[in-house]
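Record type: monomer structure entry
Structure origin: computed from sequence
Chain ID: A
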Amino acid sequence: MRVPVVVQDVPAPSPAPCRPSPPVTTTIVAVRTALPAHRYAQDDLTEAIGDLCLAPGADRALLRRLHASAGVRTRHLALPIERYAGLSDFGRSNDAWMAAGLALGEEALTAALGDAGIEPADIDLLVCTSITGIAAPSLDARLAGRLGLRPDVKRVPVFGLGCVAGAAGLARVHDYLRGHPGGTAVLLSVELCSLTLQRHDDSAANLVAGALFGDGVAALIAQAGSAAASAGAGPSVIATRSHLYPDTEHLLGWDIGADGFRVVIDAGVPDIVRGHFGTHVRAFLAEHGLAVDDIGAWVCHPGGPAVLSAVADSLGLPGDALEVSRHSLATAGNMSSASVLHILETIHACRRPEPGTWGLVAAMGPGFCSELVLIRW
């Protein structure tokens, strides 16, 4: 006789609760700026730049007004001012960019590595940005051997972001480190703006550039996860946001021709900033439960006095909120993408916020675009 088999439903064991891994933290462990040795007072550059850009006997009233109102007291130049007359074509200017960029890049990165207590062979990613010259092999490839980087170091040379690249470069470094716990990444900004000045060009844009821009190189080192714990003195990156403004490509950038990079600076840039920048910043902060008043350290690219005023107006900032940005502009000029790193270095070294302080790295550039990086000490 066959015995019936009784099958009972046995409940499946409950799955173990899924516990998401904690987010990988990106910590800025060092920032260092290298400025060329050739430092000039703004007043001493005005007539020399007039000699380069204006025809003999031309009226210099506009030139002098621009220099006086640029918010710049001193600037560093890649070459002694008397050598700029000999940069007769783009090739010579680019050769000067490469020579000075390599020397200053090595200086800045070596200093940052020393501050962080990191060996060159520990670098996993090198992002190198510049809008003021071009090279193939790129600067990062040429620096790798000089600095002792590993042969398998990942390299990302970036051209075209301009002034926004300091903030955008930090954001992309953060993106990489989120996927590489324990990794070490470097952002190197090489901006020798004076070498792009167009001789015999009396356009308003060229005269503005000649009054505003300075030269500088900056290196930022960031680490992810436990790798940052031993070094971890700097702020952590919390979130980033990119934004392109429609139909604004004509506002800022280069016209590239036989003479090299001819600057495009539209007078409408401050109006775009004043009308839209504050809205985007507030929306970004709100996503993280923050408001403008919660930001204790503003690391804002100093595009110029009018742009800084537009930023302050759009956000309703108190008069001293952008003081470090104005100081960077006054002492070094607008150094394109290196400026926000110079400002971050100054804040961390001289005005280090209390632990828990929120900061915002903000910059704008060709596109027209903006980049925001939320940080916290």
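Annotation 1: The mean pLDDT is 91.
Annotation 2: The CA atoms of residues 1 and 7 lie 19 Å apart.
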